[in-house]
Write a structure and sequence with these properties.
This protein is of the alpha/beta class. Helix content is 35%, strand content 21%. Helix 8 (230-258) runs parallel beside helix 10. The longest helix has 29 residues, at 230-258.
């Protein structure tokens, strides 16, 4: 199995074929996993218990919100927000896990958490959880006998859009999810799960019911790149540097256009977005979205990236936007100009 050989070449995980499953895309994988570990369960006393997926750091991926078969089953922790510098400049911030809040969650202590899940780097913010944060999350998951699910859609080893110096670890209590979408195969819908054999057995059973078998087309296309490690070389030498330069370009343009406004940018650490915080904005970013859309510029307002959080009582959730940095420099410049002139300035901020 090519994927098995690839992971064992680059990591000392000692995987077997029982530790890997393919899915029809990463979204398909999270549909399986969140329904395996979240929802209605019966405990040892034969009593019903509703288990949630714990998101240790919000904002988090918008695509998680609606994957449960019935309702939403999330418990989320709001972040610590630290002012930081980036490339020697002020005007940046970084989210960090609030472990004091997390460890004192009643749902965790009462057995109402089915799994912990985080994306690394995070969509939408580009935040990369540190190795220390990941080790702490792994320890908590092991302590409560629940799995730690890590979404690597933008992460290591492919497409490796991570600029921080971090490592990727795995053990039998960790579930790693990967995708081929961000290396140029989004239409192939190919996801890869690395997990304990019992989890893979359950995922395979769900695959059999939902799909009979996952599509092999994307995996077949990627096979030569996996066999000769070209997939990792492309990620390290082409994809990662491209987006790192895109982030630098976008930051320069933002500083130029909105330098006089109370804008702070989440420290660019990975992924293909920037996360912008308009402190004390007199309108919500949902209203700002409508203003910008009328001028032909699309962003995503922040309130949708807080699954498990009542955002009606959390002002920060209405002050940020996700901005893609995947476009060419001319498109970025025009879009950022609209944000500056047609957005912030229009509302007399």
């Amino acid at each position: 199995m090519r994927w098995l050989a690839f992971f064992n070449r680059h990591y000392d995980w000692n995987l077997t074929a029982d530790n890997i499953a393919l899915t029809n895309g990463s979204q398909n994988a999270f549909f399986y996993l969140f329904n395996l570990f979240g929802g209605a369960f019966t405990d040892e006393q034969n009593e019903s218990v509703d288990k949630s997926i714990l998101l240790p750091l919000t904002p988090e991926y918008i695509g998680y919100s609606d994957v449960h078969v019935e309702g939403q089953h999330f418990t989320a922790v709001l972040p610590h927000i630290d002012e930081v510098t980036h490339d020697g400049e002020a005007g940046f911030f970084k989210y960090r896990v609030d472990f004091d809040e997390l460890e004192n969650l009643p749902a965790l202590k009462e057995g109402r958490i089915g799994a912990i899940c985080c994306s690394r780097p995070t969509n939408p913010t580009g935040n990369v959880l540190t190795d220390n944060e990941m080790a702490h999350l792994s320890e908590i998951a092991a302590r409560y006998d629940i799995p730690l699910i890590i979404d690597n859609a933008y992460g290591m080893p492919f497409p490796n859009i991570i600029y921080s110096d971090v490592n990727l670890n795995w053990d039998n209590n960790t579930i790693l999810c990967f995708s081929l979408s961000k290396i140029g195969l989004p239409g192939m819908r190919t996801g890869i799960i690395v997990a304990d054999a019992k989890v893979i057995e359950a995922v395979s059973a769900m695959n059999a019911v939902v799909n009979l078998a996952p599509t092999r087309f994307g995996a077949a296309i990627a096979t030569p790149l996996v066999e000769n490690d070209r997939i990792k070389q492309l990620s390290d030498n082409e994809i990662k540097p491209f987006y790192q330069q895109q982030a630098k370009t976008a930051v320069t343009l933002l500083k130029k256009e909105l330098g006089d406004y109370p804008l702070v940018i989440h420290k660019p650490e990975g992924a293909i977005f920037l996360w912008l915080w308009f402190k004390d904005l007199p309108i919500t970013t949902l209203e700002l979205y409508e203003t910008l859309k009328e001028k032909g510029t699309l962003i995503v307002p922040s309130e949708y990236f807080f699954p498990g959080v009542d955002v009606s009582d959390y002002q920060h959730a209405h002050e940020c936007i996700r901005m893609s940095i995947a476009a060419d420099e001319d498109t970025l410049a025009k879009g950022i100009a609209v944000i500056g002139e047609g957005g912030a300035k229009a509302v007399r901020w």
